[in-house]
Queue: 4 jobs
Job 1
Amino acid sequence: MEPCLVSFDKCRLLGERAAHPLACPDVRLALSLLLAGPGLRRRRFVPATRPDAPSGVSTVSRLKTLPIRLLIMGVALSLAACSSSSIQRRDGTSTARPFSITNLAKSDVDTITEIHQKQTLDALRRLTEKLYRRNPAEWRKGNCTSAEQAVSEIFAPLDHWNLSSKRTLNWKASIFTAFREDYAGDRIKSLMEGLLTMTMTAYDNKTEFYMLESLDPQKLYNTARNFEVVAWKLSNAKNARGEPMLLSNAVDANGVANLSFEREFGKLVATQDLIALVMEEKTNRAIRTGVIDTATFILFPI
């Protein structure tokens, strides 16, 4: 009996011709069997016979001779080869996302969640860079040699967040400390580490999400409200001499406004509000809306 193998060469060739991974028939068959699992044996199932198969020999019975490891590798390589073209952005970056076998356990909502989280973290990084450029004295307080180094140190824990001590940081206290008049340390570091930990807490301290997992939409909503409060505080916090504790939005002598900080906070708020609504729909858990009072600088719990 000739075994029906999902050969690497065949899947590569089909992948080059196909516009979508599931256009490859061997991939479709292997993927359906892989997802069906043991339940396939418990159902009454009359498999179809492939045109090129010997008479009386079903595709399913022949696939039973295929080692499961080879089956999984074939699916992974085929899906990677059959991926569609990515979009190249003006700044040289790409929308391409690396394929992993774990992607088979992700729903569309999980992928959307990861994209929203990445957009939020990218906006926090840009905000940090802008703040250091406007307030260069702050990064020097931490014995850094440049603003780039200071930014890198703040976001470096993301590479191993599950092991980082930042997971247990009191993010509220860290944010409040940034606006204490008697604080002599790096205010931007204190502020952005607090916002980073708050954001990761809302995402359950994860960077990958799967079908059986759900986030709390209330936490995501509260995070958006806290961004609004911090944006107001950043623009209005002044020391005893009436000077801004941290320079951000400004209007020059010609009356031209620099609102780039406001725009970054706007992106953060919009991104978190949108993913909160997505999670509300997924989990059927209603978001309790609340009225924020920026003047009292009270942050919502996460």
Job 2
Amino acid sequence: MKMWAIYSAGSSRQHQRGVGFKYSFFTFFIVTFLFTSPLTHASSVVSTGEIKGRVTNAATGEALPFANVAVKKNGDVITGSMADEHGNYRIRGIQPGEYSLEASFAGMKTTVLEGLLVTAGGLLIQDIEVGMLDLPICVVRPPVIPLDPSNEFTLTPRDIAKIPVASSDPVSYAPLAPGVFPAPDGSGLYIRGARKESTQVYIDGMKVIGSTEMPGRSINQVTVLTGGIPAEYGDLTGGLILITTNGYFNR
């Protein structure tokens, strides 16, 4: 009887340790998920842009419900969406760069819009008109008009290639934007009169504190926001510099 009691007590302690280990592991998993998921989501929001608009009949101006809209680069479909019952569409999570937009509807011709520039954290509003079957495929290059030209300045890869003196620090290109001035001692930037400490820098959606040096060929796009800062970046009193690096589709 004593041996059985000792064995039972030992088994009970082992069981308790096993339950405690499983409980601790489960708690660690839940806490890790709760803390990392918002950061991952915030990073993806910050480093990507979106396109929205309305798909209509070119002849009548009526909305085309459930039309298909695809974002393409070099002929490949990157992402896409379907319009709602009112012809409205919205495509999120697009990596910064230049794309074409293709809209199609059953019984009608496909319309392709080329040269659309998506910026980090930017929203591009682009309506699409789709023609009837007796019309050829319509290919146009609409002018890219930002929502507020005075508050946003973007350097594309083509713009960066034209700069006479290349730099390994993409922040050094920021003074090309209106209202941005470098500090006399080179320790920061003054954006529209705000303090140097009020300017924030993000690289691929991650906030950077310290050096922003990187290989020059890895820089894809530099966007400077001097006003109208999107809510996802927080409450800023200065400016915002968004830097994206070259990815697979930017080669």
Job 3
Amino acid sequence: MVGEGRQRIDKWLFFSRAVKSRSLAAKLVVAGRVRINRDKAAQASDLVKAGDVLTITLDRRILVWKVLGPGARRGPADEARLLYEDMSPPPTPKGEAVPDAIPALREAGTGRPTKRQRRQARGIPFRDAGSGGKSCPCKRRAKALPHQKSPANTGRPGACDDLCRDR
């Protein structure tokens, strides 16, 4: 039934120690995270043979392995490395940034940006806390003048300065 030198992809991934269990290998394949010669593996029963190139997308890395042969068992790591040739690109050093990364908008060391700074960076207008159509304790609404807080009454919500007070 199975061709000479061919093996199920879930078994091969398990034997090569790409994943911890065969059921995790099957889930990885069904999720579309494994490609065999640039084609997505549709199911865990797809067969691989020597010479196939697998692209495996794991959590934080992408593995490109060339299959050298089928596995017989899940042995030690040295035995598992004989099943594939690693063709993955080398990882970027920690000090270097990814070339597609967006440069920082602020100077380093200025701390976490405030909500106002984040909105200004995205181009969203920020409504001041003092402006708005809230009514004040004197029951007058500031139609032409903006509703402003008094420096002395900043803790009280709705407290306004001399512009809205009864005279």
Job 4
Amino acid sequence: MARLLLEAARHLGETLVPERVYDRFREILADAVPHEGVVVSSYDEREGTIRCEYAWVDGERLAPEIFPPLQLGPEGRGMQSTVIHTGESLLTNEVAERVKDSGTYYDVDRTGTLRKVPDEGPPEARSAMMVPVKLEGRVVGVVQLMSSREPYTREQLELVEGLVAQMAAAVRNARLHEEQARLAAAEAAARAAAAEREYGARVLEAVGDGIAGLDGDGVVRFWNRAAELVTGVPADVATGRPVADVFTGWTDLAADIPVSEGHAPAHAVTLPADVGGRELWLSFVAVRMRDGVVYAFRDLTLERKLEEAKSDFIATISHELRTPMTAVLGAAQTLLRPDLELSAEQSRQLLEMIATQATRLSQVTEEVLLAGRLDRGDVRVEATQVDVDAVVRETVTAVRPQLPGTIELEVRGGHAGDALGDPDRLQQVLLNLLDNAAKYSPAGGTVVISTERLEHAVRVSVEDEGMGIPAAEQERVFEKFYRADPNLTRSPAGTGLGLYISRELVERMGGRMGVRSQPDAGSLFHFDLPVR
């Protein structure tokens, strides 16, 4: 017996698969104890349930699932229940008598057909052994051997008890190995998932679109670097707070953003968003996730301004070109009419109109072309010593005859000295400022141009008594195509490029330009040029 148990321990320990352990256990039994059936059951103490784990009948291994689970009965009612209660093995050579008690018994053939005995007939088995499987003194299962030919002896029972102990140890070892493999696989899967999440987070941090992950309560759970850059709100400030704290009026904003559900494609929508008092035009895409909604947004504010600038350009240029072109066309058609007898004076007036309006068309074209060249950096500006007062005097002399009779032009100063600049560009700036001062003084008044020597610069100022500029618009007047009256119904004629060109030229000469103004109290435009 000892040698058999040693051989059994060696063979049973050669595999770490529980089903193979059971197969080898049965093969070893076949040489030691005659039997036609082997059933290994497990016992769940918490549920009080006995379930089949392995079954072999008449040379065929059966699926454990065909055996219904049994509830643990009282001691003395059912052989397996008695073994579990007592923790002692049970041997009987009178199975037919034994199954007459009130326990639950099943007989099974090699095809897997179950019969409840003795209700559906007598059992096939004559002899049976029931051996407990123990772990730390507790019964965790039962091994059954059945034979229809020979009775079992106590010596055979002792042998089976030893083999069951060896088998139980081998199965526990195999289960432990399975659990370790499962834990290792779970750990590897967790590491892979963590790596994937980290990779995903890095990707989201690297993308150019802002990404905001909101939970079901609208609280920000993810806020990437691009979201910080677009909104100016750091991640540590946004995360953990309601998104409404970041986007003013978020409820109304979110109502206009379509949220993609399931595998439906997401649709982008561009909306104005108030972030910290700034209006941004953001393109939103939203996708519903299991725990909330993910919003991706892109800043299109500059593109929006560009589109507005294009629209302003078309409206302004169309307006500015229409009047002179209409005048030129009308005058030319009048001169060409054969049915009209025009005097020399009338013809001269019409030709003067054509010349004046053609000059205006040329000025509009030059302004547009110069603005484009400034944007491309193609405008050369010389940095030489220039007598600012002399340039002012020359410009005033040239522009005075062109001013309306209601405008009085006054020059003050005259002792500012030299500064660094380009005389031609300086004169162009002065002409623009004087032209603006005259146009925006509809009721007439005095336009004053003055020069002043500062510590490190020469300042030139042009002051009028016109309509003035609201404080909110004083910086915008230097933008391309900006008009105080966007509908072009009240503002004087002009492309809206004069002040933009003037500031750009001054800055290219190393200077700075600014404005001081109040509505209905006139405006003062000034610029400083550096001295050597």
